[in-house]
Amino acid sequence: MTRTTLISALGLLGVAALASLQFQQPLTLTAQWHLIFHPQLAESFDAFNFAYAQLPRLVMTLVVGAMLGLSGSLMQQLTQNPLTSPLTMGTSSGAWLALVVMSLWWPDAIADYSALAAMGGALGAFALILFIAGLNHMTGMPVVISGMVVNILLGAVAGAMILLHQDYAQNVFIWGAGSLAQNGWEQVQWLLPRLSPVVLILVVAPRILTLFRLGHENAQARGLSVIPAFFFLMTLTIWLVSAAVTMVGLIGFIGLLTPNIVRALGARTPRTELLASLVFGALLLLLTDMLAQVLTVWFGQVVPSGVTAAAIGAPALIGFSRRRLKAQDNLAVRLPGSRHSVGLSAVTVLIFLLGLGIMVSFFSQPDQPGLHLAMPDHYQWLLRWPRVLTALSTGTGLALAGVILQRMINNPLASPDILGVSAGATFALVFASLFMGQSLLAGQWGTAMTGSLIVLGLLIIFSKKHHFAPSGVILTGIALSALLQAFVQFCLAGGNQDSYSILQWLAGSTYRVQPEQALWLCALVSLMLILSLASSRGLTLLTVSRGFAQARGLNTALMSLLLLSLVAMLCAVTTATMGPVAFVGLIAPHLAGLLGAHRVKQQLLLGSLIGGVAMVWANWLGQVLVYPAQIAAGTLVAILGALYFLGLLIYNRMTQRSGLV
């Protein structure tokens, strides 16, 4: 990157900063100039707004953007991985969860200890990712996948806490959406002294990063203590992220995109990349914030800058992954398997667990001490059977969708939630609820089906280039899910009663399901199961290869369309009825294979049974664990599923280390 390019970027930043102050600005340039140096002269509302709202917002935007850009560059250079950032490393989510916990249980300590709490949460998330991926695998996809799962896990825990403490969560909604709005200089004055590590980074980091580019062994041969240097710089980076997150909330993609942009513009040395990332990070967030202000006026509702950043960054991540994904970035996952076929004992145990789960769901009395069983009265019966039937049908349907997807694209990490198929249905339903007046509780299956099909189509288009490699598919799913999350945060930031209704529905609860909806869901999932079994031969042939399937006389295009339509329908009806549920479609096929279900028909049947058992038990446990409060079944499954996925990644690392893979 030439000096001219950097100077031009600084000039563009200055012009953009000046332009941002002129949006709907009644004050003259002369009046603005005087207020910059003499804010105490403000007398009118417009003058106060300029001096104590617009100017602090501009400064906060520039500072936070610069910090996120610098943090992303430092993370990517330390790991030699262009996909690492505060978003993909899970550090932002760790800081978020820590601040949610402090906001709900120690609100009086927020003012003094919020930055330390965020720092602790971010460090905890990073330590977890480091344990899962390993220091030697920071350059590839495992760290990105680990970060994605940690984000889901921490997000599910935070969501459960917010639902259990709704009366105190409004500020968390606004903060979680990433808002740069200011009402004075207090937050800017709090943040600036805590960014002093920037000077240390700019002085010390360039030489260390230059040695890191030679490889760990060569760097160590030249006298660098690699591991202490890595943790020293990463700790400074996490501190910067924590301080920024504490003040403005979650703003994604700036730290991911900025370093890639400056490298594309010619930044070659570590020092140049760090300095350019400071400038371009500030510029990128400023342009994003300007767009957020325009959209706020357009919609008549506050659009947080974090939402706009995600809306811009998600498509950019998809495009980046398509162009820059390298062979060494591909993720190979070996599942623990079984050489034995399905045994009668395994099926018997699963059926027993299903029956036991249904029994305790119907007959347990959580208001009594211990496990007290009694016949439900008429009112309890009317409340319980739709919830049990919905949980059973949802688990069965998502497991079916997971088996079909994993078999079709030969990818053990494929599932409706990870690939974004469920996110498409969720996005469509929330959008229709907010802007078209449809009720989330009305079971809008057609709307959800449309969203699922659109995401499936996009997924196929974007992933064909890499032949549905796990890395490319999952990056696409991350981007689509992040886009959905940004839209949801926009909805929740409104703070009205609809926000809590949407959050409850997003948690995946059976609480509001009506008897008619439960019956229709059961009937449709049963029909989808029959159609899936009838299509098992075609799915078996597609699993081998499309060429082999065509040689056997199969119309591969028609069969693929049928199977993908089944997946979309299953995601649509389950999501529209119960809300999004994560990881069931991932775990059930894995466990079915572990129990010996190697044939397609066996995996469809056994996976469906496992999914149903998991959801029935999650539904009951969610009702009794914190009684009289409740944890949504979808939230509980997301937490357990994320832990399973993390265990799977640890298993792969251990087997690779021992030479078993």
Automatic annotation (TrEMBL):
Recorded protein name is Iron(3+)-hydroxamate import system permease protein FhuB
Q: Name one GO biological process term.
A: siderophore-iron import into cell
Q: Where in the cell is it found?
A: Cell membrane
Q: Which species? A: Vibrio aerogenes CECT 7868
Q: Does the keyword Disulfide bond apply?
A: no
Cross-referenced CDD domains:
TM_ABC_iron-siderophores_like
Which keywords belong to this entry? Cell membrane, Membrane, Transmembrane, Transmembrane helix, Transport
**Matching NCBIfam families:** PRK10577.1-2 (NF007866)
Instruction: Read off the lineage from the record.
Output: Bacteria, Pseudomonadati, Pseudomonadota, Gammaproteobacteria, Vibrionales
Membrane topology per record: Multi-pass membrane protein
Please indicate which superkingdom the organism of origin belongs to.
Bacteria
Major subcellular location class: membrane
The UniProt family comment states: Belongs to the binding-protein-dependent transport system permease family. FecCD subfamily.
Q: Where are the transmembrane segments?
A: 54-75, 87-107, 113-136, 143-164, 195-214, 221-239, 245-262, 274-292, 298-320, 341-364, 384-405, 417-436, 442-462, 474-495, 518-542, 554-575, 581-597, 604-621, 627-651
- GO MF terms, alphabetically ordered: transmembrane transporter activity
**Any one cellular component term from GO for this entry?**
plasma membrane
